[in-house]
Amino acid sequence: MRCRSPQWGSIIRLAGVVLLLKFRQQARESLERVGMADYANRQINQLSGGQQQRVFLARALAQKADLYLMDEPFAGVDAATERAIINILREIRTEGKTAIVVHHDLQTIPEYFDEIILLNMPGSNRLGNGCLHGRESP
Question: What is the 3 state secondary structure string of the chain?
Fold first, then answer.
């Protein structure tokens, strides 16, 4: 006969609470990192487009990944939010992590990114279709 101890249930519940607290702390830290901690209790549909982008970025940062894939993180954001996102991308780089970003503003590419891949660029003499162009990091 197998003996069940009521202590195991308590231990498992306690472990679950500890994990939940850890995840909440990571979420809080990520929201602080993107400047959205004051909005932590708002529903996503109550936020502006730029605020939503920051929250989505915080969600990605909370996962502490080594690789981030971002599809137009600057779309629909104001200049201040764009600068905040760029600063976070630079932090990610200094942490030794990689961000692959879809971006359409060719004017800001040299300032924002270390390496680029141009796709569907007919007539581009400098880089050509699908060519990788890298430059030294500042």
Answer: CCCCCHHHHHHHHHHHHHHHHHHHHHHHHHHHHCCCHHHCCCCHHHCCHHHHHHHHHHHHHHCCCCEEEEECCCCCCCHHHHHHHHHHHHHHHHCCCEEEEECCCCCCHHHHCCEEECCCCCCCCCCCCCCEEECCCC
> Which residue from 83, 84, 60, 87 is spatially nearest to 71, judged by alpha carbons?
60
Give the global pTM: 0.68
How far apart CA 12 and CA 17 sit, in angstroms, is 9
Q: Which of 73, 58, 68, 65 lies closest to 25 in space, CA to CA?
A: 58
Contact 32, 44 (CB under 8 A): no
Place of tokens 């979420």: 27
Q: Is the per-residue pLDDT at 9 higher than 90?
A: no
